[in-house]
Amino acid sequence: MGKLPTLPAAPNKGDGYIMMRSLFSGVSGLKSHQTRMDVIGNNIANVNTIGFKSSRVTFADTLYQAQAGAAAPTSTVGGTNPKQIGLGVGVASIDLLFGDASPQATGKNTDLALSGNGLFVVSRDAAGKDKYYTRAGNFSFDANYNYVMAGSGHHVVGWNADEEGNIDTKGTPTGIQIKDTMRSMGAKATTEVTYKGNMNSSVPTITEMRDQTGKPVTEDYALVGAATDFESGTLPPNTKAVTSLTLTMSDGTKRTITAKGSYRYRIDESLPITTVTTVYDSLGNEHKVPLLFTKTPDDTDLPKSRDKWRVTLSPGTYEKGGKTYFDPYDPTSTDPKDSQATIKETEGSTTVQMAAQTLQFDQNGKYDKGDGKPELTLKTGAGSIDSTTGNVSDKMKVTVNLKNLTQYSGSDTIKADYDGNASGTLKEINADQSGVLTGTYTNGIKRALAQVAVAQFDNAPGLTKAGANLYTESNNSGTANIKTVSALGLTLTPSALEMSNVDVANEFADMVVTQRGFQSNSKIITVGDEMLETVINMKR
Q1: How far apart are CA 115 and CA 249, in angstroms?
Q2: With CB atoms 3.0 to 4.6 Å apart as the test, which of 100, 192, 409, 425 could cross-link to 202 if both were Cys?
Q3: How far apart are CA 220 and CA 333, in angstroms?
Q4: Contact, 245 vs 222, CB < 8 A?
Q5: Within 10 Å of residue 496's Cβ, how many Cβ atoms?
Q6: Rounded to whole angstroms, how far apart are CA atoms 166 and 93?
Q7: What residues have CB less than 8 Å from 191, skipping those under 6 apart?
Q8: Whether the Cβ atoms of residue 262 and residue 223 lie closer than 8 Å to each other
Q9: Nearest to 242 by CA among 219, 271, 273
Q10: SS3 category, 298
Q11: 88 - beta bridge partners?
Q12: Element at 170 (helix H, strand E)
């Protein structure tokens, strides 16, 4: 008998459904590409949504049907790979792209743009408990001066300042609100004037004084004026009155003084440096107090570089009997009774008293010793409470701090800083790069009002979008770390808004690819349908 012919192998179960598998693979491709197109459409729709973060879709192949498993190689036969048929495609992830977008200047003081891994914190309630997070910084103030998110009214969360402008960022952040007490500022009396800057150690001094006739002045002092310019009708001792005074300076220059005054010039002294500091009383009345700084000769055996300066009030004038008199001011006296000046003001006048002070500097140009504590007698405006008796007094004491002055060769840069202020109302609010909201008042004073809080997440793309430019925490975002902008290393741009980070060119390219992918998958279904039709038509 001959050898029997080999019969064909039995078909694997399911081989008859190969065309059905391709149909369903095509359907899965259509669905996946439809999802991708939905995401692209949403990205393009939000191309101008402030703070919007675009998303992307990634695909992954799905389950596989194994036709045969892998076989290991043997000593006689090589190994074979598995035979698997894929069952289509699925959406692997929809990723939130949390990259920064460009800030766009708006010119609105309360708008904020944030850069870096962080978000603003907003809340439905003023206590800041029901928190949401956003990158949209279109903030404004409502009728009650709540700092809110425009459109939704969510409260912007941060830390409010106290009435002195101090902000405690270690406390619990709440909704920012400018309280009534912060919308106006009461008057505050000046307690200290601090002088800063440099006095020129090389300032020229007077080497010779001549009167209007050209004769040298032999007296110790020269004064441009006459005894009749003083109410007493007499001149200070050792003083010559002249109608004009020509001064020869140590640098060879000449100065001519013609204006009447009660200042007395002296050889070996410099011309006075005039400064004006502002002093406020308890009602906020402003008083301009002039101080003179004059370099004087050193009467010790110390090195020449150890110079002395005299600090005195600038002599003022007062009206009496229809005539203007100069104050009987003696700049060499250390008695406050002899060291006073009358400041003419819009209403009335104020008498200022301060004993002359001598400042001494060491060989390095640093302050060595000297101080001054002027006492102001306010004849208009308010007074103060006497620290000793507790009674109301018409005298207000202001400390003059001269210890920050230096004496180097160069220009004079003396400047007076002072506390105290007049009353004022809130005029505008501006934000800075640290998120501090600063109020500018009508009296020119600036004061911190609040500071915006920001949040950082370990996995910001894991946040859940809640709509209206808001995000909420999710199981995979981590918990919010709420701190200041600087503490989290973020960048804040005031008067600007962060734009959408949608790349339109990239979205259109993805749209073309998605469209072609969708068409290709639809073709699979069409061809599969034609093959099924062929099978059906086989039996005709």
Answers
A1: 60
A2: 409
A3: 15
A4: yes
A5: 19
A6: 47
A7: 398, 399, 419, 420
A8: yes
A9: 219
A10: coil
A11: none
A12: none
Residue 261 exposure: Cα atoms within 13 Å on the Cβ side? 15
Cβ burial 226-239 (10 Å sphere, 16+ → b, else e): eeebbeeeebbeeb
- 525: three-class secondary structure by DSSP: helix
Distance of alpha carbon 484 from alpha carbon 503, whole angstroms = 30
Which ranges in 423-479 belong to alpha helices (H)?
none
Query: Per-residue pLDDT for 6 more than 80?
Result: no
Residues 6+ apart with CB under 8 A from 171: 159
Calpha distance 65→94 (Å, rounded): 26
| Residue 8 vs residues 4, 32, 403, 472: alpha-carbon distances, Å | 13, 40, 110, 63
SS3 393: strand
∠ Cα 390 396 398 (to 5°):
115
Q: Which residues have C-beta within 8 Å of that of residue 66, sequence separation ≥ 6?
A: 82, 83, 84
Task: Report in angstroms the alpha-carbon separations of 18 from 151, 528, 531.
Answer: 55, 9, 10
- Please state, in angstroms and rounded to a whole number, the distance separating the CA atoms of residues 185 and 48: 41
Q: What is the pLDDT of residues 238-254, one digit of tens each?
A: 889 999 999 999 999 99
The DSSP code sequence of 324-374 is EEE----TT---GGGSEEEEE-SSSEEEEE---EEEEE-TTS-EEE--B--
CA dist 291 and 357 (Å) reads: 11
Confidence of residue 1 (pLDDT cuts 50, 70, 90): very low
Q: Which helix (H) or strand (E) is 115 found in, with range?
A: strand 112-115
Taking only Cα atoms into account, the Rg of the chain, rounded to an integer number of angstroms, comes to: 43
CA distances from 257 to 45, 276, 329, 346, 384 (A): 77, 21, 19, 28, 40
Residue given tokens 């596989």 in the structure block: 64
Tens of pLDDT along 503-531?
Answer: 999 999 999 999 999 999 999 889 888 88
Prediction pTM value = 0.76
Per-residue tokens: 364: 């390095």
Query: Which amino acid belongs to residue 123?
Result: S
Contact 313, 341 (CB under 8 A): yes
Going across the sheet that includes 273-280, the strands are 273-280, 286-296, 308-313, 357-361, 367-369
CA nearest to 129, candidates 177, 172, 168: 172
Tokens of 31: 């669905």
Give the three-state DSSP class for 186: coil
Instruction: Choose among 481, 534, 520: nearest CA to 33.
Output: 520
Structure tokens at 369: 């010793």
